[in-house]
Design goal:
- By secondary structure, the chain is mainly alpha-helical.
- The protein is built from 8 helices and 2 strands.
- It has a two-stranded antiparallel sheet.
Length: 232
């Protein structure tokens, strides 16, 4: 009987220790989870601040180097960041992206674009316009080479499918990339090709004048005076 009581006592003690160990591990995990959650919130807040600073810096940069005035919305047109005419062909698809970008959340806009482009049921028009919006955001954020590569790819598709409005839109974005890269001859060429794009006429004209001014200021032989682009 004494042996049984001793065994029972030992077993209870082992269970107690095991339970205490589990409680300690649980409490440690809770503390780690709180710390991880706090870290995530801090990183998210920091990311939002950096995104706002990037947007402000981009706006300041455009002001200081004399970029042409941004287009303004009217009762009949809706401009995003003064450079992108809000989609009328695919509003349900692209308006959430445009709204995020307009609010300054560039990262969220790019994430939404990535999700859209992963869809398999997009029409040619939808895919081309989605990539053009992505390129515009990249160009506006200073990633002009990456944006230009994207425009070049979809421009060929738009030409082949005779998506005339999107061809013009692509040429305008192409011109803005070249303008920011100080390739003024190329920029003039693109703006000329985009001059009859519906809704973009005034903005294209303003950009053309600015490109012309910068072109004339360059010395003879400067790379910015060399035409490197073709019509497509």
């Amino acid at each position: 009987m004494n042996a049984l009581n001793s065994l029972t006592k030992k077993t209870n003690e082992d269970i107690r220790k095991a339970v205490q160990t589990l409680v300690t591990e649980r409490d440690n995990l809770r503390e780690q989870a709180k710390y991880a959650q706090s870290t995530i919130l801090q990183l998210e807040a920091q990311n939002m601040r950096l995104d706002r600073l990037l947007t402000q810096a981009q706006a300041c940069l455009q002001t200081t180097i004399g970029i042409v005035p941004a287009a303004k919305s009217s009762p009949n047109t809706s401009w995003v960041r003064g450079i992108w005419l809000s989609s009328t062909a695919n509003p349900t698809l692209l308006n959430p992206v445009e709204t995020a970008w307009q609010k300054g959340d560039t990262q969220q806009a790019l994430i939404l674009l990535h999700l859209i482009l992963n869809r398999e049921n997009l029409t040619n028009s939808q895919r081309v316009e989605t990539i053009l919006l992505q390129a515009t955001i990249l160009c506006y954020s200073g990633h002009c080479y990456q944006a230009l590569d994207q425009v070049e790819d979809v421009l060929k598709i738009a030409e082949e499918k005779q998506l005339d409005d999107l061809v013009g839109k692509a040429q305008f974005i192409r011109g803005r990339c070249c303008l920011d890269l100080k390739r003024y001859a190329d920029a003039r060429w693109c703006f000329a090709l985009a001059s009859h794009t519906k809704g973009y006429e005034e903005l294209v004209e303003n950009n053309m004048q600015f490109a012309e001014q910068k072109f004339n200021e360059l010395p003879t032989g400067d790379v910015g005076k060399c035409l490197n682009l073709s019509s497509v």
